Predict the structure.
Amino acid sequence: MLAFILRRLLQSIAVLLTVGVVAFSLFRYVGDPINAMVGQDTSMEERETLREKLGLNDPAPLQFLNFIVNAAQGKFGLSYRTSEPVGRLILERVPATLELSFCAAVFALFVGVPMGVYTGLYPRHWSSRLFQAVSLIGISLPTFLIGILLILVFAVWLRLLPSFGRGETVQIGWWTTNFLTWSGLKALILPSITLGLFQLTLLMRLVRSEMLEVMRTEYIKFARARGLTNRAINFGHALKNTLVPVITVTGLQLGALIAFAIVTETVFAWPGVGQLFIQSVQFSDIPVMAAYLLLIGLLFVLINLTVDLLYFVVDPRLRSQGGSARVAGH
Amino acid sequence: MASQTNNPPLLEVKNLRVEFPTRRGTLLAVDDVSFDIAPGEVLGVVGESGAGKSLTGNAIIGLLEPPGRIAGGEIRLEGRRIDNLPYEEMRKIRGARIGAIFQDPLTSLNPLYSVGRQLVETIQTHLPLSAAEARTRALDLLKEVGIPGAESRIDHYPHQFSGGMRQRVVIALALCAGPRLIVADEPTTALDVSIQAQIIALLKRLCREHGTAVMLVTHDMGVIAETADRVAVMYAGRIAEIGPVRDVVKHAKHPYTKGLMGSIPSLGVRTERLTQIDGAMPRLTEIPTGCAFNPRCTERGQRCLVERPDLMAAGTSRAACWLHDRGGVGAPIVKEMVDA
């Protein structure tokens, strides 16, 4: 178990270094940042000193080493656009994105999984067929269109919910939260639904197919023969056996929610890291882009690590392999 | 041990019919099957695959897989009719009054729950015991079915047990709420031959000690001869012969049973070749008129082609064969006539 975690950690570091190379190469290949930072009338000498100050004249491997060492300490340099430290810039935006992604994930999980269980248990019921049909729409409509449609209905026509921004937020330390004000909560609803709808339909369809599979197994039939209640069979025996693939997909999708919140944040003018990234791309603000890339890489690695550990919690067959309890017989 | 006629039967199956609606019409997979099981009695049910023996077992525990359904007849347990009970009522009977053992112990247990947890949940579903009491009972059961080191094994997961040990756990699960009847569907087929005898001996011993009746479904005549008090031989969805196991094995009354017994190799008796029954059991879609066995029967007559025999007394057994009717099988059949 410990060996497994260590192995996974080493792999994670390798992945992050690779992401680091990509992020670093942004600096070298996406135009000359000096041009973006200085005005037309800056002299060559001034440009040269700035170049020296930013370390852009060092040999590439040394620059890469500096970049990695600094990144590991959370120092990503100054934004070319605002001249603020990139770390602080991102940290200011992170709460908005994380809260949005969290709500979207909760929405997807708590609606998607029960719907999947239901449609898996009663595949022939008319409501299951309805869910299936509607989920096709969820899976095939692009996110921005769903966002715009939701804005049209709930913000423009019904005037129930705000169409942009976070509403009022409360500051707790460096973290700003939506959860403590009424307008903040209201502002979360539409973006969360927009962001989570795709994941919801994906989860629902996954749980459904896994449930259909598991309900055909011999141990479910034997559980019935033991006279267990439907509740114990459906939500204990069956659902737990669908969990491994569901955890995998949920983990990957959680990463995707955070990474690809960009579209939703743009549609709803949500002040998160995704929006920051879009602005940075427009200004070729390479330090911000590189830091964002690394941040997303780190998130994916952390989520995957958590997912791997969750497998052990769910499936005892994985636990004993290489462990002390040897498999007896056969 | 043999069936006592004065005791009321534990299980009564009367004219049971199980059918499967398919696109090409409804198939009758179990056709007019009737038998009783006395308390504590072991009834063996043999037949080839597709003879309807497993379906009969599933019908009794109320777990026919859709679209299969009971189309007629009735099933009574301790005098109470159980074939038409609502799902929830039948659920309370399953596990509590009727236990079940399935063919494959490797797939019968949920891989994600420890065996102790599976035992405890079954016990607590049917008996008003606290968690601690249920665990004690689970532990006793594991010891009783011969799991060595039960105290430490109770928290192990199914994959940590061998096939034979898993089947012992399955038996413990079937017995854990003290059922009156166990439907064991091919309980040893998936096991190593060396383990089979142990499991059968265990099942036999436990059921004798607990006074539990068993319906033992198998295609292994050896297992039946060793274990059962009475045996029912099924062919094409019907009972061909039913009677005390000794009589059926030694003095088979139905030509099919005779063929079946002739196909068992026996030690000590030197035979050049085992006898075999020519042909195969008909598909459900093409069951011949008259006796379903007639195309393979060596003793058939004209009557077998047109009239279907019901079970009739034949010595100590009952057989569905016109040989045992006063009218006989009718005129002999000239070979060419049938082929034409």
